[in-house]
Write a structure and sequence with these properties.
By secondary structure, this protein is of the alpha+beta class. The protein has five helices and ten strands, in the order E-H-H-E-E-E-E-H-E-H-H-E-E-E-E.
């Protein structure tokens, strides 16, 4: 791997990252990695806020997958390395590795992104709006992007209206909020009794302020769980968690 094309950051687990059993939350895992992606893009000159200010375009997350052999522990400082694996006109893939305080690899992740015009909400040419092509490092990780996740057939566990606190600087629901809604639909006994081994999320449509959504949760025979955020026109997002 070409280290000149990677960015490395440290993260210390905060109290807010822990649940009632002092386990590192799956939402905290996604937030940690997406903040690292944000910082790496900034450090390389194509961060979201710079794109918004210069051309009213911004990064949007399409897919997320993480595989963990163990989760970060309370107050532990972990090391996250990230790089851009590939890019074309419409899509780019960013990867991550996570190492614990002893230097052991405890997980990896991969993400897929596009850039949209914030006025039209349509994708634009990534390579025309950024210098990202100069930092491509074609090194894969063991985590693979999710394919088409199964439809959830269960009835709604909860319904809600998207509020101010759900919305990010792109004017739509924050990526982590989808996962928070999904996990809040899951019985707490499951969340307390298990840890996340693989987390997959596919973001299918934007959820905007004031929209009404329903959250669906279904346990599978293999012990995994399926989730969906659904509107009147279909699913906005789907996820699958494999527990351990």
């Amino acid at each position: 791997m070409d280290k000149s094309l990677t960015n490395t950051y440290s993260y210390t687990v905060l109290p807010e990252d822990l649940d009632g059993r002092r386990h590192f939350r799956a939402v905290a895992l996604e937030r940690m990695l997406l903040n690292v992606a944000y910082n790496a893009a900034n450090d390389r000159g194509f961060g979201a806020l710079k794109l918004i200010d210069s051309g009213s375009v911004s990064w949007v997350l399409l897919k997320f997958a993480a595989e963990m052999t163990s989760m970060p522990a309370e107050e532990e400082t972990v090391c996250i390395e990230t790089w851009v694996e590939s890019v074309n006109r419409m899509l780019t893939t960013r990867n991550f590795t996570i190492r614990n305080a002893s230097g052991e690899t405890i997980g990896c992740a991969t993400t897929q992104w596009t850039i949209i015009n914030l006025a039209t909400r349509r994708p634009v040419n990534i390579m025309a709006d950024t210098s990202i092509v100069n930092v491509v490092n074609p090194e894969p990780v063991d985590a693979t992007l999710p394919g088409k996740l199964p439809e959830v057939h269960a009835e709604a566990s909860r319904c809600l209206t998207v509020s101010y606190s759900d919305i990010d600087y792109n004017g739509h629901t924050n990526s982590m909020q989808y996962l928070q809604w999904m996990l809040d639909s899951c019985p707490v006994e499951i969340l307390y009794g298990k840890q996340t081994a693989r987390l997959e999320i596919t973001y299918m449509k934007e959820v905007l302020y004031g929209e009404q959504v329903s959250i669906h949760f279904e346990e599978m025979e293999d012990g995994s769980a399926l989730f969906a955020v659904r509107g009147t026109q279909g699913d906005f997002a789907r996820a699958r968690i494999v527990w351990k």
